[in-house]
Fold:
Amino acid sequence: MEVTRRCFKDCLNLVYAAIEEADFLAIDGEFSGISDGPSVSALTNGMDTPEERYTKLKKHSMDFLLFQFGLCTFRYDPKESKYITKTFNFYVFPKPFNRSSPDIKFICQSSSIDFLASQGFDFNKVFCHGIPYLNQEEEAQLREQTEERRSQQANGVGTPSFISPSCSKGPAHVPDEHKDFISRVVEKVETLFSSKEKTVDLEPCTGFQRKLIYQTLNWKFPKGLHVETVETDKKERFIQVSKVDEEERKRREQQKVEREQEELNDAVGFSRVIHAISKSSKLVVGHNMLLDVMHTIHQFYCPLPEELQDFKEVTMCVFPKLLDTKLMASTQPFKDLISNTSLAELEKQLNDSPFKAPETEAAEDFPSYNTAKEQLHEAGYDAYITGRCFISMANFLGSFLTPPKAHVSARSKLIEPFYNKLFLMRIIDIPYLNITGPDLQPKRDNVLYVTFPKEWKTSDLYQLFSAFGNIQVSWLDDTSAFVSLSQTDQVQIAMNTSRYAESYRIQTYAEYIQAKQQDKDKLAHSSKSWTEDGWVRPHYAASAASAGFGYSRSLRKRSISPIQPEQGSSEAAAVDGWSHYSYSDSSESKKRKTDDVVESKTSEGWLKTTEASESSGSSLVPEEGSPEAPDPTEDAEGTLAWQQAAAIPGHISQKTKKKSEAAGASSSLFEVPEVW
Amino acid sequence: MEVTRRCFKDCLNLVYAAIEEADFLAIDGEFSGISDGPSVSALTNGMDTPEERYTKLKKHSMDFLLFQFGLCTFRYDPKESKYITKTFNFYVFPKPFNRSSPDIKFICQSSSIDFLASQGFDFNKVFCHGIPYLNQEEEAQLREQTEERRSQQANGVGTPSFISPSCSKGPAHVPDEHKDFISRVVEKVETLFSSKEKTVDLEPCTGFQRKLIYQTLNWKFPKGLHVETVETDKKERFIQVSKVDEEERKRREQQKVEREQEELNDAVGFSRVIHAISKSSKLVVGHNMLLDVMHTIHQFYCPLPEELQDFKEVTMCVFPKLLDTKLMASTQPFKDLISNTSLAELEKQLNDSPFKAPETEAAEDFPSYNTAKEQLHEAGYDAYITGRCFISMANFLGSFLTPPKAHVSARSKLIEPFYNKLFLMRIIDIPYLNITGPDLQPKRDNVLYVTFPKEWKTSDLYQLFSAFGNIQVSWLDDTSAFVSLSQTDQVQIAMNTSRYAESYRIQTYAEYIQAKQQDKDKLAHSSKSWTEDGWVRPHYAASAASAGFGYSRSLRKRSISPIQPEQGSSEAAAVDGWSHYSYSDSSESKKRKTDDVVESKTSEGWLKTTEASESSGSSLVPEEGSPEAPDPTEDAEGTLAWQQAAAIPGHISQKTKKKSEAAGASSSLFEVPEVW
Structure:
């Protein structure tokens, strides 16, 4: 169902009901661009730390507009053994609410726009009929302004938007060139008093003239008049003056209050949908959803916090339960069965054995999609497909149970290992961002940081390191890259070899991180200026008071932030061959409070992984063609084979056989590396 | 006539012919926004210097997109005594030419977008079917790249976009996981050689796989094959392999060269229209056209230069003869007859006495507009209306001649005083930017720079200065403003009064300018970073070589730049009561070379002006309603009464009577202040 500004209010209850009854929700967003600075390959470097990735996306992706939001709700009908779906395709645009509301600027990236255009995207629906929205702070300020205006009016100050306090006490100062105009207005109003008419419309005029009219009439006729600015369809404003007795005046005031309340709700607009999703605490499924989550929070809740840890906390408040189908498909037991995790390919593969196409049916009055024909990249459709992928994979997990189950619900313990882990695009050794805990910290002691002349190509790096076995190259910019060796014991030899090199320079990853940290410390106090001129972050005056919403920046810092990698620090005890990751003491985060839900997690201690990657050249695929990343949308779905524990299905099913599902399957059944 | 990418090539000759035959051209642009930083009232402060205004517009307006360009050509038909018009409405969008072409980012301002939407603007035409374009540098680089690729191919290096030099010498290194794929391809090609088929299409694959295919086939089958990447409608790329003999191969190569040339012209796209306008050297008319000119040069020629003087030089190369109808209408003899110079109002007034609605007729096959009904803010229509306004005003000038003439051509000497003076929005005492000479330099010794707490409103400033007569307030930001006193002799008294003030501070304009210059000198080396990550200014590698186009950044600085105002400097000799302006020695710029036209200007020395402004409060109109500027589009047309010599029509017509038009009317007939 397409939802624009025109029908938004009528649809809203339908949306609320759909969320309310759903077993889970799937979402997807379309943006006006991906990166306003670095090429996509630099934005998503294979050796980024989660902090770096977050910082880059925040800095270079958030000034784009999320202008289409897809929501598909899935309700399981046990009688029919199928899901009933309701798909909504919202068009979103920050139409200024009134003249003092924020005038949002956003960036468009021509390649992204061109790509969407080629997919038949309807830009007129966005720009002409997009649903407006306000974030929490804007909403709070608007409510405050409205309150203030009301209380001033109650005190008889009149229409303060046009009158500054010092002016309203005496007669208005009317500049000479407006004196004729104003006396004509006064005459008209005097005529109104002596006529049968109840109302007179003045001619359209400028804001300054309206101000003078308000001031003059307020002073000359303190009682018996209702003066109001009316806007024509053509956006011309004129003043309407009405004779009113006290009762009529009160009735009109009451109407005005109601109208203001209504307008305020209209201004909050699409954010109300996100609030409803948030309040429902339902599982929210997305595909490669980190950017979707970041944009959603940034646009409809609050500007993103500086620190990754704070972002994780906000995310848990807005979306208490997330699941990323790209991460799920890239994890055992799916990893070995699914060769390409782009949404389109994933959907195809999940329709074939050993998976089963899920049974879904569109609810009455909702569009049903023909998955064989539909275009991807319409947000509603993508959300629908994402939900279907989730169902196929969830149900597949049921086949490991004894007895096997064909339907695994969104609330099943089998799903839990995949909660709140958002796929990290193209990072070689950190598959996901862990929203509810510290992130994986690969040691990267097989990684070298290489700088070289800008003429160098990947082939030059291959040549240089040909003696040290297979390598993986992750470009940083024209003159630097990370090179991962397949064997850590080659690192020292490579370092030694480079000692006398003149054209290039090699550092270990640890040295690189240390130097970077030092630079960061130096710069700590000199950044942050880029949002100061009202950019995307809107213009409303200070005050703030992030109303209602349960997130507060002053939350004390939790003690679970990942240990900062320190050079030469002794490794935390390696568990079960998890030698490439260090992690913080798991006891610290066994219990954590999220909003009002206390989650209990037990670390079972049998975490799995493998040596990071023998898969030579897999990181080449997206970067190779040209140093400038190719089509960003293709990239956005580009897959990168990251290495993880090979599944041992026998082992899993054996283990599973010991437990009935009622007793709860282990949350570590499937090989999502966990660090708590 | 609507022109999109679909019909652009077919229309181009029509456009060329229309420009060729025209007496003059009118243009107009629609942009995706106005200001990405300051509010419009701060962007167009009443006390800006021309340098400041240029710098602000360059910094805060150029990242928006000019996405609709209107061109209306006017050809006078002397037999019918009317103009024949051809109107073109071009939709423009920087669709990336290929994967290595610049991926332009541009900003949208929601208020501007919303305004255009409310006017029925069709965004799909822009984003889906907009005509691409390249600036001079991009075009030169693309030609260079194409040349380079061709010469490499001639040397047998193959398809260098996929092969780096070091790889092409031996067999391709095929990673293990692609070996099967590649050997299947080789089999297919071997089958092709032994079959009757001439061509085989390989399955779609990734860029990396295509690279491997090119390398492998190049090495295995150095002769007899033509290998080409083909793109399907769905943007999937696959490789087509054809058997060819030497003759066929050459034919195909030739075809390819032609196709490349064609593609290159397609990529230059809309810029070709601007080049044609530029080459024609015809008079180009616009309304309030400074931003149109800046955007046009920025998008289709070159990034705007840092310095205003350099901008003037580029402008003269691109548009040797400009005329701004808003400036013309704001100048005598029109000023006293025209109360509102916004385009819509101007058009209305010019249809009434003493003016005459011009006779125009749309050429065959071109749309004719009904001026009583049409919507403004479609660029083609606005250009058409602008041209009509120019004709009315030009013809009106003919009424001063003896005998009066009903038709005054675009080449008439009567028009010359208005050439190359672009209206400066809302600057109180500098009506225009003088493209062909130094700008007016009002002394502003009646102006004070005031800083105060951010709670202050205009009324507080009125109160503060109430003792010193009428004032004009030009807000700079929340805590500072310029206050112009009507009497210069009050300045010292105001300064003295403020000596012990704690909440506010007053400086003279001269002190303010001096402090600002000092700040600027300090910062001189620390700015310019904002374009460094490929922003709007595109990604192509360095090299440059601004081809063909006659503008070079290394032009020696001309000696005509306006004198820098220095505190306490002795005023340049005041001429004929021109006491509020200083100007540089006119002898320096009597002759200046512009492109290949030598213009000769004589300064007649009887320049006119008046005391700067008694018109109290006129600067209030746009800023007053709210500190945030209201609807920017309304502002863009907002008028500000700037004071100038009162016309003495008797004097003018008297003077005129002395000369026949054949002898050439004086270029200083109408009161455009000139400083050379």
Observations:
- The radius of gyration of chain A is 30 Å.
- Residues 156-168, 527-580, 582-671 of chain A have pLDDT under 50 and may be disordered.
